[in-house]
Amino acid sequence: MKKIAVIVPVSQLEDSQVVLNSAKRIMALEYGNLRAKIVYAVDINSENDERIRLLKPEGVEVLSRQSRGRRAGALNDALRYLADFKPDFVALFDVDSRPEVNFVKECVYALEKDPMAYIASSPRYVSNPVNFVSRTIQAEYHMLNFLLKRSAFKQFNGLIGVLRADLLYKYKLNEGAITEDADYATRMHAKGYKAILLRTTKIHEQSPVSWTDLLNQRKRWYYGGLQLWRYWNVVKSSNNKSFILSWAIALTMTYCILLFLPFVIFSPFLLLFYSNNASPKASLAVSAGLVLYLLILQYSAIIALFNFVRGSSVEWKAIKRVAD
Predict the structure, then answer these.
(1) What gap in Å lies between CA 142 and CA 277, rounded to an integer?
(2) pLDDT > 90 fraction of the chain, expressed in percent and rounded
(3) CB 95 within 8 A of CB 22
(4) How far apart are the first and last CA of the chain?
(5) What is d(CA 29, CA 60) in angstroms, rounded to the nearest whole number?
(6) What is the per-residue pLDDT across 303-320, written as a single tens digit (0 to 9) for each?
(7) CA quadruple 161, 251, 291, 178: dihedral positive or negative?
(8) How far apart are CA 95 and CA 26, in angstroms?
(9) What is the number of other CB atoms lying within 10 angstroms of the CB of residue 232?
(10) pLDDT of residue 294
């Protein structure tokens, strides 16, 4: 029987109820004939962390740890914890990940059919379109899903999906990278592996609900993107022109994002087309939000570039969650 390890990293600042809801959702997934072991890697916030007490009755294993190496450190520690289990596949989720029940089964099936795939995942959707900010980001997700289908460099944020365990153990996550997901995706694509985007399942996740949280999130992402240029020679040596072009565009497009501002004029029509529930009034409101969104992204890119040049890092800040 093949085995799958499911890892969910939990930062010190994650709310207890959000973590508990996550465990209930992950436990309810279909694992088919796979033997599953679910581990929550919890960065404890006190000696009597309430989240650990809430998690254990849910049937998951809890790895308590002192915060080290950010998210990549939590995942690497969990992989070491799971070494004796010897999984064939590893599923990675965040506490706000809400995959459809067939997500794991569909991803594993895709990986078994393609030995050159290192990860399988699905389109992302916003689970908390509760205000102006999150509804604007929801529109962004539609665009990203469209672009992801066509890109030869498929990078799933957070590496949320199911990965081939042997490759994950062999190449490990880079704890020195601000964006360990993009770092790993770059290295794997450069080695000739690929990522699979499935259309037979989907996953929802929470978006920022304030412009400040969006700014802090994107500053970190863009700083991490600048770190990826260290792999330029490795990327070029892959001799995969489609991958090289997609990778280079992904790393440069966001730093001149205001070039896309004129296209916002077409967004109300696209929103009406892609969203069954959108009204003309709501589409116009989100289009106005997209203008502010582009300005914030451009500002985030400038700050990240400035910090990168002067050698100062960016601070990780927790994003406010919405109860689900």
Answers:
(1) 14
(2) 65
(3) yes
(4) 34
(5) 13
(6) 999 999 998 877 777 788
(7) positive
(8) 10
(9) 14
(10) 86
Give the whole-angstrom CA distance, residue 23 versus residue 8. Answer: 9
The DSSP letter of residue 88 is: S
* % the chain with pLDDT above 70: 91
| Angle subtended by helix axes 211-227 and 180-190, to nearest 10 | 40
pLDDT in tens, 134-171: 988 988 888 888 888 889 999 999 999 999 999 999 99
Token pair, residue 175, equals 């704890």
pTM for the model:
0.90
Residue 272: what pLDDT?
46
Angle at 321 between CA 213 and CA 286, to 5 degrees: 60
Whether 154 and 116 have beta carbons less than 8 Å apart is answered as no
Average pLDDT over residues 286-305: 85
Q: According to DSSP H, which parts of the chain are helical?
A: 16-27, 50-55, 70-81, 103-113, 132-150, 165-171, 180-190, 211-227, 232-237, 241-253, 267-274, 280-310
Find the range with the poorest average confidence among 2-11, 12-21, 257-266, 294-303.
257-266
Tell me the C-alpha distance between 264 and 269, whole Å. 10
Helices (H), strands (E): how many in the chain? Answer: 12, 10
Give the Cα separation of 297 and 303 in Å (integer). 10
The span from the CA of 101 to the CA of 29, in Å, is 4
* pLDDT exceeds cutoff 80 at 215: yes
Length of the chain in terms of residues written: 324
Query: In whole angstroms, what is the distance from residue 24 CA to residue 54 CA?
Result: 11
